[in-house]
Amino acid sequence: MQSKENILTCTEEVRVRFNETDPLGIVWHGHYIVYFEDGREAFGRQHGLTYLDIQNAGFVTPIVKSTCEHFLPLKYGETFRIVTTYVNSISAKLIYRYEIFNKEDQLVCSGETIQVFLDSNGSLCLYNPEFFQNWKDKMGLL
Q1: What number does CATH give the domain 8-139?
Q2: What superkingdom heads the lineage (predicted)?
Q3: What is the pLDDT along the chain (142 residues), one digit of tens a residue?
Q4: CB within 8 A of 89, min separation 6: which ones?
Q5: pTM for the full model?
């Protein structure tokens, strides 16, 4: 039996594109939420929980809460890494925490998103959908 302390993470490297910068030459603050999306996509590919997997099971997972704290700027052409961590919960939701680090390994930004499950009728799921509980069991999460 695996520990309930099993922590699932994923690290993705990204390069700042020109269209993501503002007139000051730094990444516009709204793009960090897009970078979080990049982290979720990479996490899903690595751990077998992609949006297509969720959709094929008959569910969607809209974001109901997002937070983002900025510490340092990123500039055009810089590469950075997004560390995405799944936060286990007994509730029927997906919670991810994010840390973005620059090439000097300095924390640039951190944040969190919360997503809920809606079924094909658009109804909120109060319990983990079967496919999601199966995924959690496979990953050693309680």
Answers
A1: 3.10.129.10
A2: Bacteria
A3: 334 468 999 999 999 999 999 999 999 999 999 999 999 999 999 999 999 999 999 999 999 999 999 999 999 999 999 999 999 999 999 999 999 999 999 999 999 999 999 999 999 999 999 999 999 999 999 7
A4: 95
A5: 0.93
